[in-house]
Each structure stands twice: as structure tokens, then as C-alpha cells.
Automatic annotation (TrEMBL):
Protein name per UniProt: Phage integrase
This protein's record includes keyword DNA-binding: yes
Family: Belongs to the 'phage' integrase family.
SUPFAM superfamilies listed in its UniProt record: DNA breaking-rejoining enzymes
Biological process (GO), any one: DNA recombination
Originating species: Acidithiobacillus ferrivorans
Every Core-binding (CB) domain range: 124-206
Pfam families: Phage_integrase
Domain Tyr recombinase: 240-416
InterPro entries: CB, DNA_brk_join_enz, Integrase-like_cat_sf, Integrase_catalytic, Integrase_DNA-bd_sf, Integrase_recombinase_N, Phage_Integrase
Coiled coil: none
């Protein structure tokens, strides 16, 4: 048997003399032999030499020689490979080449079958369903798309085995694992959001069989029942907030925002000065949504199950108009007039983060909107007019089909009073105003 030193010496000799060399390392009767061929350039390759069933000699290639074993076979590994083939040969299989080719074909077919089965599973998997649902929301420009995507990413996709399971084979017990993990981590507010996202995705796929307006891709999931329905809604853990800001907190918030010359600060100021608009709608406003000639800002209320967003028109009053003009001077072609980089729509989480920084965590962005409506009510702005200003509770038949009036005169009067109230608050004065829109 050869030694590594002898083998390396033979390689050097072949390269030096530019002469090919053939060596035999192992030769056992009836088991074939391990051959080594070294080219005139010094390149060495191993072969398994044996006699086939028809009496012909066959040198089956095992691979090149590499003393490090990274780009080829070491001498020891070549001997191991020889031993494996010798065992097969000794068992009665004389046509090693044909045998290994057949085995390779079988293995390739098995692998292909596994890959196809995996692709089939993943094509109809829970993960695929949730991805398709998020992509649908994004394509429709739904403000909830980002939140749904983050909810799924944070609380569902970590369960790799579950998300790889076919969506129509998953039951309530399987999904319960998601919520058990969340509760173990002390999460409460996210429970309802996660359930809602899963329920909506399944419900959407189930409706696709009969609703031609839903992309046909959802029919491939073959969902007939919604496994989320039996699960609790966790409503008792998501009670409506009651926190409102004190006058001192609201004043401090406005002063902090006014001192920051950033798009996010301007977005929050605009949100507050316009009566507490939904940030998800406000940050999606573009140049096309601003009419400076008429002094109007057009928002699009896509909240809920609306097929088409509802137009929500607001008057641009000072100082809001000035902030909007400043934003447009920078972001006239951006996807949002409040874009910080000119290329993306601000994520509402960024606004929330700034609120958290200012408040020290004592209140959240949702509390600001609640404060605005509470203060508007305190100023005497009627419930109906508040609904028009804040675009909520306007989904009835009358509002949907008959009432196209934008209430601009009423909104202007109420917001002028509101802005005067905020300016007075900033100056240290509380201005009591009553009966607006009553």
C-alpha cells in the first residue's frame, strides 16, 4: 500500500519529468483494486478497477486527490470508498458503474418526489395563505397591511412546523399553540390582533370559492371552514382605552413636537391640529391629496371592509397649511408628504415611538386621538360633527348612498375653535368654548 509521502513524491516526479504515472494502492483478489493515475501535469485521480459481468475491465472514477480533503479525496478517504465498492462487488454486483447510476437515479427521483411533496405542502400551507393575504392587503393599499404583516411575523412565523402545514388541515387545537406561547410571554393586547389576522385570512380564503372578486389563488387552499372561529376573541384583554392626556401633558406634547423640525413631528402636529385624525390615513397623503387653491386635504378612509376607501375632506387652516406647504416643498413627488426619506410612507410605529419618547411611556398615540375627541366634546362640538371631522361611524346606508355633503363649513368652524383652543393651551390659557356644531 502507498504512503502519503510516496504518493506526493510520485506527483512531483510526474510533473518534473512530464510523464504520466500509474500506481496501485490496494488490490484484493475478487474485490477489484484502488488505482491512482497521475497526469504529466501532476494531477492525480483515483479509480476503482474491476472486471464487469461481461469480462471487461472498467476503471470507475472516484475523484481527484487532495491531501487536505477539501477539493478532493485524501488517500484514506479513497481507501474507504474503495472498501465500499469492494463490498458491493463482493455481494455479486459486478457492473458497479451501472449499479451506481441506477442508485443515483433512484435517489434523484426520491429527492424530486420529496421536493414536490414539500412544494405541494407549502403551496397550500398556512404560511403561504398568510403571505398571500398580506400581499393582497398591500396590493389594495390597505392601511392595515403593515400591521398584519408585523403581527404574523412576530407571533406566527416562528412556529415553522405549523406554518408549513397545509392550511386546510389545521384545526383550532393547532392554532391554540400560537396563543399559548403569547400568553406565556405575557402578551395580552397582541392576542386579539393575531386572532383577527388569522381569522380574516381564513375567512377570505373560504369566501374565495364563491366570490369572484377575490383572487383565484385563494381557492387553491381549499378552505371550507374557519378554524379560528372557535377560539376566544380575547376581547376581555383588549378593553377600550380610557386614558386621556391632562392639559399639562397635551401642552408639553405640543411644545416638544413644535421644537422638532422633522417630518414625523409635523405629521403628529397635523394629526392633532386636525382634531385627532387617524395616523394611518394621514401619513398616506400625497401631493394629489392636497388642494392649496381651495385649502383642502383629502384623506382616504379604507378602514374596515370597504371595497373602495371613503373620501374624507378636511379644511387646511393655519398653522396646518404652513406645515403641509413645508412638507410639499420637499416631498412633492414622494409617496407621502410626510416621508422622511422621500421614498417611503412613514410607518405609524415611527410616530408611536416619538410619542413614547416624549411621554416617557406614560401615554400612547391612541390616547392622543381619544384626548382630541374628548376635548372637542368638551368644547361643545356635537357628536355628529365630531364623527364627520374624525371620519368614524359613517358606514350607514344613508351616509353611504345619499349623504355626499362634506360638511366643510361646519368642519372649518369647529377646527378653527379647536386650533384656537390648542394655541391658547400652548400660551398657558384655557379657552372655554361651547356649542360648536350643536
Amino acid at each position: 500500500m502507498l504512503t502519503v509521502r510516496e504518493l506526493d513524491g510520485a506527483i512531483k516526479k510526474a510533473a518534473k519529468t512530464e510523464t504520466a504515472i500509474k500506481l496501485t494502492d490496494t488490490d484484493r483478489r475478487g474485490q477489484g483494486s484502488l488505482q491512482l493515475r497521475i497526469s504529466a501535469a501532476g494531477k492525480a485521480n483515483f479509480y476503482y478497477r474491476h472486471i464487469t459481468s461481461d469480462g471487461k475491465r472498467d476503471d470507475f472514477p472516484l475523484g481527484g486527490y487532495d491531501p487536505a480533503g477539501t477539493k478532493g479525496l485524501t488517500l484514506e478517504r479513497a481507501r474507504d470508498r474503495y472498501g465500499e465498492l469492494a463490498t458491493i462487488y463482493r455481494s455479486g454486483v459486478k457492473d458497479i458503474r451501472a449499479h451506481l447510476q441506477a442508485q443515483g437515479k433512484i435517489a434523484a427521483e426520491a429527492l424530486r418526489g420529496q421536493q414536490e411533496a414539500q412544494a405541494h405542502r407549502e403551496a397550500g400551507s398556512l404560511g403561504a395563505l398568510l403571505t398571500a393575504y398580506v400581499e393582497y392587503l398591500q396590493a389594495k393599499g390597505k392601511p392595515s397591511a403593515k400591521d398584519v404583516e408585523n403581527t404574523i411575523k412576530n407571533h406566527v412565523t416562528q412556529l415553522s412546523e405549523l406554518v408549513a402545514t397545509r392550511a386546510n388541515e389545521i384545526g383550532p387545537t393547532d392554532l391554540r399553540l400560537i396563543f399559548d406561547r403569547m400568553q406565556d410571554r405575557g402578551l395580552t393586547r397582541s392576542l386579539g390582533k393575531t386572532r383577527a389576522a388569522l381569522h380574516s385570512a381564513y375567512n377570505f380564503a373560504a369566501r374565495s370559492e364563491f366570490d369572484s372578486t377575490i383572487p383565484v389563488i385563494f381557492r387553491a387552499f381549499k378552505i371550507s371552514t374557519n378554524p379560528v372561529t372557535p377560539l376566544p376573541t380575547f376581547a376581555h384583554l383588549s378593553k377600550p382605552g380610557e386614558r386621556t392626556l391632562s392639559h399639562a401633558e397635551l401642552r408639553q406634547l405640543l411644545q416638544e413636537l413644535a421644537s422638532r423640525d422633522t417630518m414625523i413631528a409635523k405629521a403628529l402636529l397635523t394629526m392633532i391640529y386636525l382634531g385627532g385624525q387617524r395616523p394611518t390615513q394621514l401619513v398616506r397623503a400625497t401631493l394629489q391629496d392636497v388642494d392649496l387653491d381651495r385649502g383642502l386635504l383629502m384623506l382616504h378612509d379604507g378602514k374596515g371592509k370597504r371595497t373602495h376607501p371613503r373620501l374624507h375632506v378636511l379644511p387646511l387652516l393655519a398653522p396646518v397649511r404652513g406645515w403641509i406647504e413645508d412638507c410639499l416643498s420637499i416631498n412633492s413627488s414622494a409617496p407621502s408628504i410626510f416621508s422622511s426619506d422621500g421614498m417611503t410612507i412613514p410607518y405609524t410605529g415611527t410616530l408611536s415611538k416619538l410619542v413614547h419618547t416624549i411621554s416617557g411611556g406614560s401615554y400612547r398615540m391612541g390616547d392622543i386621538r381619544r384626548t382630541c375627541e374628548t376635548e372637542l366634546a368638551g368644547l361643545g362640538v356635537s357628536k355628529d360633527l365630531r364623527a364627520q371631522i374624525l371620519s368614524h361611524g359613517l358606514g350607514g346606508i344613508q351616509a353611504k348612498h345619499y349623504d355626499r355633503h362634506q360638511y366643510l363649513e361646519e368642519k372649518t368652524e369647529a377646527l378653527n375653535h379647536w386650533i384656537a383652543y390648542l394655541e391658547g393651551l400652548m400660551a398657558g390659557n384655557i379657552i372655554p368654548l361651547r356649542g360648536v356644531g350643536a
